[in-house]
Design goal:
Elements lengths: L1 H56 L2 H8 L6 H11 L4 H22 L10 H22 L5 H23 L5 H26 L12 H32 L2 H14 L4 H19 L3 H28 L1 H6 L10 H15 L4 H7 L6 H23 L1 H27 L6 H17 L8 H22 L4 H12 L1
Helix pairs in contact: 1-5, 1-6, 1-8, 1-9, 1-10, 2-5, 2-8, 4-5, 5-7, 6-7, 8-9, 8-15, 8-16, 9-13, 10-11, 11-13, 11-17, 11-18, 13-16, 15-16, 17-18
């Protein structure tokens, strides 16, 4: 786990920086300079492009991670990488022609509730094209166990881009309308940087020779395409459905709450960049002991760190919203709790998703993803009408909870490995007790000082309990090393 911890630490730092920048954007600059309508528009456009991204990439990034370590010589690796970069074109080329021909029809369909959307239909497809190939070349670097620079481009670059563009809008150098198009162009600049970096890491001898198992590779790509498309619905379908049922400003309030809540998954996002290729390698090498070790340690370590983030977010959320200029955003405080709880449950699964996606049982990801997508769609359709944006959050929590349990049981049945043990219960009890006790402590200082004091208290108590109960050897080593500095 040495390389995992090392690169995970760097990736957590990167994502934390990205979060701070994104927080400034989300909580201040977006509402202040774009206002609710255009902010909601940007959220809708990016969320819809994310729904299309798995389709545009045709699962190529996941295919690289699964198969690359199975090739043992340079010739076969070069043939594999040469062929894989052309796979997304199978979808991108016909999709481009379709958008050209059906642009007006698509625009009318998506802008029934909010006409402002119609002028920006191309943004959805252009961003999805750029992010698709970015993910392909990011996977290219990850299979060489180089995840940090790509993670900076994935997490920090877009937020810095948004920050710069929002500042330009504030000084009237850009209009709100041109903001969207400049942001689209910067996604393509990021793609170019990622391509160059990946080729520096490893430049294959390009050829038109197909790998011997190309049919298997293509079959896997199609399965992952379908599974990824369905899974992406779970992530962004709420931001797509809310504008169809509520004012588009509600999408902005919901997006801010989700942004805050997803802090809980920072450790997972950081760890999976390097952990997923290692899981694939363990599976390709038939190293069951290594796989079990990765599964159990990733689950406990992620639950500990994500639980800590869960407490920091939810115990400070009321004070956090007081720092914002727009009081309407605080109406989504319950969304933060619900979504962060869903993310905590998801993080407890550890590297389980990577095991499902890269093992011989990868086909099960498709029915799981389809069932999750259908479930969240119908739950959203009912619960958004009943509870507004809170209903969308409840839908996500229900679906993630049920299907995480089902996936854990499936892996247990097939591979006889389990991510949970008695320490899992201890960690959850610590989180619950601290949430119920510290949450009732009120301070009379400013919102910023209240956040600072409460965070210090939680940090000391939580880390002390984790350390003295010995819930993670690796985290205890990090704590001891930190205290000696």
């Amino acid at each position: 786990m040495g390389i995992v911890i090392k690169q995970t630490s760097k990736n957590i730092f990167t994502i934390s920086i990205a979060l701070i920048i994104g927080g400034v954007n989300t909580l201040y600059f977006y509402p202040e300079f774009l206002k609710d309508e255009y902010y909601g528009l940007v959220v809708f456009l990016l969320a819809t492009s994310n729904l299309l991204q798995p389709l545009m990439s045709l699962g190529a990034q996941h295919t690289i991670i699964k198969f690359y370590s199975s090739f043992k010589d340079k010739i076969s690796k070069d043939a594999f990488l040469s062929s894989i970069i052309f796979i997304p074109l199978i979808v991108i080329i016909p999709t481009t022609f379709f958008v050209v021909k059906a642009h007006d029809i698509i625009g009318e369909f998506l802008s029934i509730q909010n006409p402002i959307i119609q002028s920006y239909i191309w943004v959805i497809f252009l961003v999805s094209f750029a992010t698709s190939y970015f993910e392909v070349f990011y996977a290219w670097s990850r299979v060489h166990f180089k995840s940090v620079f790509g993670n900076v481009l994935k997490e920090v670059y877009p937020r810095i881009s948004v920050l710069i563009l929002l500042l330009l809008v504030s000084f009237d150098f850009l209009t709100k309308e041109s903001f969207v198009w400049w942001l689209t162009g910067l996604y393509y600049l990021r793609l170019v940087i990622m391509v160059v970096y990946s080729l520096i890491i490893y430049t294959p001898k390009f050829s038109f020779t197909l790998p011997e198992n190309f049919k298997e590779i293509l079959s896997y790509s199609l399965y992952i395409l379908l599974a990824g498309s369905a899974a992406s619905l779970l992530i962004d379908i709420d931001k797509y459905m809310i504008p169809q049922k509520e004012a588009i400003s509600q999408t902005a309030y919901y997006a801010v709450a989700v942004f805050i809540a997803t802090v809980v998954e920072i450790p997972g996002r950081a760890m999976f960049q390097i952990l997923n290729p290692m899981v694939a390698k363990a599976i390709n090498d038939n190293d069951s002991l290594k796989l079990n070790d990765l599964y159990q340690k990733s689950s406990s370590n992620l639950l500990i760190v994500s639980g800590f983030f869960f407490l920091l977010i939810n115990l400070n959320i009321s004070s956090f919203y007081l720092l914002m200029n727009n009081e309407f955003y605080s109406d989504a405080v319950l969304v933060v709790l619900i979504i962060s709880l869903a993310k905590l449950i998801q993080m407890s699964f550890g590297c389980g998703p990577a095991i499902l996606a890269t093992s011989n049982f990868y086909r099960i990801t498709l029915p799981f993803s389809i069932a999750m997508a259908i479930s969240v769609y119908f739950l959203n359709d009912v619960l958004i009408d009943l509870y507004g944006i809170n209903g969308a959050a409840i839908s996500t929590l229900i679906v993630l909870s049920i299907f995480t349990i089902l996936k854990v049981l499936f892996i247990r049945f097939k591979l006889k490995i389990n991510p949970y043990d008695f320490n899992t219960i201890k960690i959850l009890l610590i989180v619950l007790v601290l949430y119920l006790t510290v949450g009732y402590i009120d301070f009379i200082y400013s919102a910023f000082v209240d956040i600072l004091i409460r965070s210090v208290i939680v940090s000391i108590i939580y880390m002390s309990l984790i350390y003295y109960l010995g819930l993670s050897k690796r985290i205890n080593q990090i704590i001891r090393k930190t205290l000696k500095m």
